[in-house]
Amino acid sequence: MIAYKIIDTQTWPRKAHFDFYRQFANPCFNLCVPIEAQRLYETAKDNGVSFFQLALYAILRATNSVPQLKQRVLGDKVIEYPNIEVMTPIMTANEGFRQIWCENTADFLSFTKAVTPQIEIAKTTEAAPLRVQKENFFCASCLPWVHFSAITHAEFSFGSAVPTLTWGKLKDGKIPVACKFNHAFVDGLHASRFFMQLEALFADPDSLWREHPVEGR
Question: Which GO terms fall under molecular function for this chain's record (predicted)?
Answer without folding.
Answer: chloramphenicol O-acetyltransferase activity
